[in-house]
Design a protein that fits this description.
The chain is an alpha+beta fold. It has 20 helices and 14 strands. The chain has a five-stranded mixed β-sheet, sandwiched between helices. Strand 6 and strand 7 form a beta hairpin. Helix 5 packs parallel to helix 8, helix 6 packs antiparallel against helix 8 and helix 15 packs across helix 20. The longest helix is centred in the middle third of the chain and has 41 residues.
Length: about 525
Amino acid sequence: MDVLSRRAPELTIANLLDVDEIRRGEPEVVSGADHVGRPVRWVHIADSENVAQFLEGSELVLSTGLSYRSSPESTAKFLDQLESASASGAVIELIHHDGRPDVEAIENVRAAARDREIPIVVLRRRIKFVRVTELAHQELLNRQLARVEHARTVHEVFTQLSLESAGAQHIVDRTAELLGTPVLLEDVGHRLLAHAGGPPAPHRTQRESAGTGHLGEGSGHRQRWLQTPVGLRDRRWGRLLAPGRLRSDEEAAQVVERAAQTLTLARMAERDEQDLLVQAQGGLVREIAEASDLGEKQVRERAADLGFTPRDRMIPVVVRIDRDPGADPTTLQLRERSLHRDFVSAASAHRCSTLSAGLQSGSFGVVLALPTGADDEVLEQIIADVPTRSATVGAGRPSDSIIGAVTGLESATQVAEIASTLELRQRRYYRFSDVRLRGLLSSLHDDPGVRAFAEAELAPLLETDDEEMLVLLEQFLTHGGNKSALARTGFLSRPALYARLDRLQRRLGVSLEDAESRTALHVAILWLRTNR
């Protein structure tokens, strides 16, 4: 499709000054030369000094000034009326009956117009006003029709893109074609998602500060930006920018806004499709986990119908959203869905096939089929591309069987839950080998023998619900019984700490110097913290 018309969307005084009919009148701009770019909504002929009653704003007034041009006061009143009515400007023909310029009237108008912003143009030769109005009104009509045609074309283009379920890059490509300028799509973090119409020359820091019509520095010259947000009002996920477009360019703004709407609809449709696929895959995952009569061949056939391609190395992964005590269940669910989508998208970008399912509220599981020859580093890269700062990722043992990988989601869930209790999380994801004793105790959380052991070891503190002493014991054991290190951590003097440890030892009835006692107490504390 051809690029849309480059002419200005509005008729201006400057445009009309180039009309041959006005040029024959030897026009002189006596005021407002810097404002001849004002738009003209209509052209009106008026000679009365009380012209305001005939105007509604943005008109160019054509006048011979017969009723006011001989008096400086009347001339000034006429110009005052134009300004009060927000007229665009005036073209005043000052000619004697015999065709000679009326020098005195010209001086009156020049004096009255001095220091005004409104463009006032004086003509020294007679012209046909009717010809000027005819040309102006025809041009206004043509421009209006062009705007309607432009709007129709834009509507058809973006409607067709929506019907074709076009991707973001295709939509950005068509937008750049319509505008004839570069177009950039970026996310809320100012990362470039797609661009077209030339290299994405604007630097990221310039885009970060850009607003609609904002002036930014780039490549040694000033650039203008036209931008609009992309996404629903309460869930913006990006913005569309067109460097070099003016804020007043209504046609360009219309294109950018429709493009943003189409991108929003495309993302919504894509997410609806992804949500349906996740629901279908989740049904298969739950069936595999609960049924014992499904064979691997049958599972692979059904998984293939759901878009999952099994590979030799499949890793069960569980992502657990950190629980914020102040967050409501709806917020937790929205965070889970958003992170689930991001994870699947990131996996796809790394050529990994996924079979995923929502688990308990706030967590989801994914069977990740790695590309041939890839190692677990791919999982690191996927997690790095996903905002998991407020989530914990657990991974199970790799398997070459879908059933085996789905079964491994249970252990991955336990790992994620255990790792979420760690005070310091230094890994992108955890396996059972990373959580060690905590993992063992977590897997035994329902074992009555372990419960009885832990409660017996800590009974003197649990019976009185002495959390202060429990914390002191935990810190003492965490520091391996090193009293000096513990004193520095708690900002206590050694005598004060020794006194508190002595009270703790008497309460427990065991020696804190004994290695076996410390080991038993440490196991009990870990069980308590893991299973509370």
